[in-house]
Amino acid sequence: MKLTIFGATGRTGIQLVRQALEEGHDVTAVVRDPARLDVPACERLRVVTADVTDPAAVAPAVEGADAVLSALGPRGRGPTTICYDGVRAAIEAMGKAGVRRLVVCSAAGAFADAGDGLFTRYVVKPLILNPLLRDGFEDMRRCEREVRDSGLEWTHVRAPQLLDKEATGRYRTATDINLRGGRSISRADLAACMLGVIGDDDSIRHHVSVAY
């Protein structure tokens, strides 16, 4: 498949690029600074330098893709709109290019539902995590709303705390509900999950929770 990856120089994005290439996909990595893309050169890897919030700038990267994946995320805890602005640009570019499949990384901590234990649902998330990570979580919620309203064939992959560890291949998933006790996952396993849902029609227009 031909995949376009936003946020390719982030720690999750690099995992996406590496694993996609290992699986034999053709990858277009959208970056602001090519020097930060810690991936060996490959004939199936194309690097496009662009402002990810500018639809016109990212249009060449999206053209001809079978799917677009976003690993965009905030750095630090201050005000941010990177997830929303980036996915909005991607959606506009995809609409003009006729690309339909979109997989977006999101945060399980930003959403509480019946899948959470009572303490997590009514104490940890609203009273601890959301005040601590308020700006980043609000950006991700806005991003998800924009994606849901896009009319595209989208999937949100919601992850808990991210770890910089090796892939295990042993993770749980749930559709449209949080995973009870799902506190962490490695970025490598998150990337594997995101790549795995691309061809899963049952995940289209749903969110998939992933965790150990």
TrEMBL record:
Pfam family, any one: NAD_binding_10
InterPro entries: NAD(P)-bd_dom, NAD(P)-bd_dom_sf, Polyketide_Oxido-like
Every NAD(P)-binding domain range: 7-200
Family annotation (Gene3D superfamilies): NAD(P)-binding Rossmann-like Domain (3.40.50.720)
PANTHER family xrefs: FLAVIN REDUCTASE (NADPH) (PTHR43355:SF2)
Identification of the protein by name: NAD(P)-dependent oxidoreductase
Organism: Actinoallomurus acaciae
Organism classification: Bacteria, Bacillati, Actinomycetota, Actinomycetes, Streptosporangiales
